[in-house]
Amino acid sequence: MNANSTPTRSGHTASQGPKIRRRWTIVALLLIVLIVGTVMFVYAHYPIVNGYAHHSYIPDGDYTEGEDVPPEPTDKGAQSKLWYHDGYWWGVMYNPEAGEYRIYKLTVSTQEWTDTGVRVDTREESRADVLWDAANNKLYIATHIKQQNPSPVNNNPANWAYLQQYHYNASNDTWVVDDNGIEDGSGVITVYIVESLVIDQDSTGRLWATYVVREDLDQFGRPTVPGGGIAHYYVAVSTTDDPSLWDAPVVWNTFPEAEVSVDDISSLVAFTDADGPKVGLIWSNERLGEFYFYSRNDSDPVGTWTVDNEFEALKAASGPISADDHINFAVTEGGDVLAIVKTSANLDPANEDVLIGIFARDTDDGSWSWHEVSEVDSVDTRPIVLVNETTDTVYAFSVSTTGGGDVCYQDAPIPDNLSTLAFAPGGCDPSDPFGNETIFISHYDGGFENINSPTSTKQRLTNASGMVVLASDDMNGYVYVHNMEGGGAPVQPPPATPTPGAFGGEAIFAPVFLKQ
To answer: Which among 444, 439, 400 has a CA at the least distance from the CA of 48?
Structure first.
């Protein structure tokens, strides 16, 4: 387009008016830019310095509470929104034109996410956790309304958490819905509104879910306890023969450690150790400043859970490991459990303790060890953990600063003796000359500066699958961003500034004002 042309709503170029009118128009536009912020055009599949920017999840690039999808659709960190199957990476992403979350496919050769048209959830405020069951060709997606202050029972089915089920049709690379709980009213996991909900599957085929519920509000959101702020963990399980049917959830309120703050979080992981297949449950308790881990054998009665004494012994030996509400799981090929967490050590200015760390459980004897990923000075946040079983490597991802920045990772070989797992000291701050991080997703100067909430998969990765991490930037262009390592990912030179039509894309939202 000629620099002197004026784009119309239809995308065509209008005829030029008198020069004096053009000059005043340009001046007026420049004044608007100076007042509101910097103008940025967002391009589909645009290669940024490290990674690729995708489409915006806000139709007009300007978030309006109650009207548009809430910020950071890749949140929460305990959840996984990607999976790998049949040579493709897939993800749950929001389509703003359709007004719903759908399944998208990543084409590695072009780094383009393609909308498959397969609906996941029409609720803009919803969040998803994805579980791929390769053995049975089953895809499970749990969706729920995200609310920072989790609520008690809600009488409106539109606010409940549901399980959707799909299978894969390899003949045409299509996902086919088997049971859409939202549309037909089945698959209700919980009638609570929660901040985060995570699912996993045990060896018998049962699905498990966990979430935190605030207990001091009635169904209308009114406090029932003076002062408020009381919450508990819930655990729900499906029946063995029909994952769409869920037993009544069990609230963990019989011991003090289960009474938590409304900001706390829980997560589940299925694994197998020397004693057989298990499900583990970890949760944060910011009221007591602790993390807790319970587990159960798949052969045990459904309500049987046991405190992990080895985990408690580790905490006692390591000193205080203050809890924050950031947890993510990975399991090695041998059955070792890796739980990456963020602590609250940064709340004490004098504290020089670990900010991001990994609890590692050795599959041979059930022993736990604690490993620093980054220290308090790094201000890292929102960690996730991935494992490459081809190279026996663990990757610890985090965001460089609260509110969003760059997504970095540190990696380490997985040793035979898991207690010797070690990451090089440092953090994700790109300005730290002594840092040992690798920047995985980052912005170009002037745009995409608040990349946040990385997410990936529950699966173990291989050299063939490569490694994909998806994040979102809702402070600038309200766009999805991702990057890929391995798996034949193309290498793109990082441009200094946006170029119309770059990387096969085109300007799809223009202009977008960067917030100051």
So the answer is: 444
Mean pLDDT, the chain, rounded, equals 79
Tally DSSP H helices, then E strands, for the chain.
3, 37
- What pLDDT score was predicted for residue 221? 54
Q: Once rounded to an integer, what is the mean pLDDT over residues 379-390?
A: 94
Collapsing DSSP to helix, strand or coil, 136 comes out as: helix
Task: Determine the Cα–Cα distance for residues 379 and 358; give it in Å rounded to an integer.
Answer: 16
Give the DSSP H/E element, type plus range, for residue 28.
helix 19-36
Pairing of strands 192-193, 207-214: unpaired
Long-range contacts of the stretch 498-501 (C-beta < 8 A, 24+): 498/40, 498/41, 498/43, 498/46, 498/444, 498/447, 499/43, 500/1, 500/41, 500/43, 501/43
Question: 364 in helix, strand or coil?
Answer: coil
Integer Cα distance of 447 and 513 in angstroms: 10
**If pLDDT is split at 50, 70 and 90, which confidence band does 350 have?**
low
Q: Which two tokens stand for residue 497?
A: 């500034």
Distance CA 78, CA 88 (A): 23
Which pair of structure tokens corresponds to residue 402? 């609260």
Write out pLDDT tens, residues 387-413.
999 999 999 999 988 888 899 999 999
> Which among 334, 440, 454, 341 has a CA at the least distance from the CA of 387?
334
From the list 348, 366, 310, 344, the residue with the least C-alpha distance to 357 is: 344
Name the amino acid, one letter, at 337: V
Query: What is the CA 175 to chain-centroid distance, rounded?
Result: 22
Q: How is 449-507 classified by DSSP, letter by letter?
A: --BEEEE--SSPB-TTT-EEEEEEETTTT-EEEEEEESTTPPP----SS--TTGGG--E
Q: Which amino acid is located at 37 in the chain?
A: G
Copy the structure tokens of residue 418. 């898991």
Show the CA angle centred on residue 357, arms to residues 354 and 359, nearest 5°.
130
Alpha-helical segments (H) within 228-319: 309-318
What share of residues in the chain are helix, strand, coil (percent, to 5)?
A: 10, 45, 45
